[in-house]
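Aim 2 progress update. The chain analyzed this quarter is reproduced below.
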Amino acid sequence: MTIHPQSSVGQVHLTVADLDRSVAFYTDILGFRNPERDAASAVLTANGEELLITLTEEGGARPQPASTTGLYHFAILVPTRAALGRSLQYLLETGYPLSGASDHFVSEALYLNDPDGNGIEIYRDRPRVKWPGRD
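Predicted structure tokens:
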């Protein structure tokens, strides 16, 4: 089975404990824009048009307990290795902690958690012609 190369995931919806704190993280640390906001939710975009992340505040929301089902992480695709490098450099400069990094042979990735413990992968794909064989 193959996945069509134009496949993508739509908007991500996250529950957060503190909306102000989360909006600050996603805008200041990850560079998203916040064009829409009300008292209980905020919508984030990377390009000012396509809505990518909705944050909804729920007082007392807590991270998903380990070893239970739920969101493992969501992924943010960057266009080039240089863009991934700039993301890494900025995270290092701000002192924001990484939870990991990996070379998957088809992609390279950085992993971190938002202030509510939601996992985030920032990655870049290698060109498909450079992917290893299916076996």
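The radius of gyration is 16 Å. The mean pLDDT is 88. These observations will guide the mutagenesis experiments scheduled for the next reporting period.
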